[in-house]
Write a structure and sequence with these properties.
With about 350 residues, the chain is an alpha/beta fold. Helices cover about 30% and strands about 10% of the residues. Helix 2 packs antiparallel against helix 3, helix 3 crosses helix 9 and helix 7 packs across helix 8. The two termini are about 25 Å apart. The N terminus is likely disordered. One of its GO terms (biological process) is cellulose catabolic process.
Length: about 350
């Protein structure tokens, strides 16, 4: 879920001059799978010793792992375990978000771990592209985010708030004027509602190093979106930029925001970007650093797998799986290429 590259999909992302020359997509698209209310699916996943974040046995990768084991496909299962055994985020969209947030946060609390959620339901989502949708209007969004916040209650949770939403007000995707002002107000409301929960941390999405080229403009947009009350911001959501470059971009933005902390999506950045405008299911990519709250980088609160590795970015004009569908060959490629 999450927006698509301007040049390839008609939205207005800017071009980033990374070492690989990659064009910066907004984050790659990914609609949310919905967990069932049943007990664990038998994939046998355990919480990793010393890991702060929750490993769910209900992710797409975990379910595929159980299927592979059941079919005796041991080599593929062993490779996929590199994804399934790591904590990744639970995306929340328009459907059943409150129930999913409550269910996952309760299971995480029972395991004494912290779940990571991605709230992704802003009106005019993704500029009408692969992940189009979102709440019908401002009132619907306020009701939706209040429900999510209430579902989390007094349990621990981290929430990455609305990937692409701020950055799309700074590109050519049409979120301008009164629409942008409404969006900033909705994001500030979401931060306020979520921060009413005593153990919820909130990170507003701040694009990636190749998309958001002007830290001062991004900083001002984040201020209008309530960053002052949030715990920080997120960078590289669903993208491929290397951790060093993400940290440099985040550091400049942090300086413009009075030292706000941030998190980095390392889910697929192990080999960095492919180059050119290859943002949609690019080949040869790899898993990045595993999720951890011990990054060793001042101001970087965590490396997170915000994008769920193995879920497609979209059809990509090549007939590939829909955005959000788990794609085993791609997942295995990411896992096998990881260091």
């Amino acid at each position: 879920m999450v927006g698509l590259l301007a040049g390839a999909a008609g939205c207005g992302g800017s071009t980033g001059g990374s070492a690989g020359g990659a064009t910066a997509a907004p984050s790659a698209a990914m609609p949310m799978p919905t967990p069932t209310p049943a007990d664990g699916d038998g994939s046998g996943l355990a919480q990793l010793p010393g890991q702060a974040f929750y490993v769910s046995d209900r992710t797409s990768a975990a379910r595929q792992l159980a299927d592979l084991r059941g079919q005796g496909r041991t080599a593929e299962a062993d490779a996929l375990l590199r994804i399934a055994a790591q904590p990744s985020s639970q995306w929340l969209g328009e459907e059943a978000a409150r129930g999913i947030a409550e269910q996952v946060s309760r299971r995480a609390a029972e395991s004494d771990r912290t779940p990571v959620f991605v709230a992704y339901n802003i009106p005019h989502r993704d500029c009408g592209l692969y992940s189009a949708g979102g709440a019908a209007d401002a009132a619907s969004y306020r009701s939706w985010i209040t429900g999510v916040a209430e579902a989390l209650g007094d349990r621990r949770a981290w929430v990455v708030l609305e990937p692409d939403a701020v950055a799309h007000t700074l590109d050519s995707c049409g979120v301008k004027g009164d629409v942008a002002a409404e969006r900033y107000g909705l994001l500030a409301f979401a931060v306020q509602e979520l921060k009413k929960r005593p153990q919820v941390r909130v990170y507003l999405d701040a694009g990636n190093p190749g998309w958001a080229q002007d830290p001062s403009a991004m900083a001002e947009a984040l201020r209008r979106s309530g960053i002052g009350a949030a715990d920080g911001f997120a960078v590289n959501v669903s993208n491929f930029y290397g951790t060093d470059r993400d940290a440099e971009y985040g550091g400049r933005l942090s300086a413009a925001l009075g030292g706000k902390h941030f998190v980095i999506d390392t889910s697929r950045n192990g080999n960095g970007p492919l180059g050119g405008d290859a943002w949609c299911n690019p080949p040869g990519r790899a898993l990045g650093d595993p999720p951890t709250a011990d990054t060793g980088r001042p101001g970087v609160d965590a490396y997170l797998w915000i994008k769920n590795p193995g879920e497609s970015d979209g059809e990509c004009g090549r007939g590939e799986p829909r955005a959000g569908e788990f794609w085993l060959p791609y997942a295995l490629g990411l896992a096998r290429a990881a260091r």
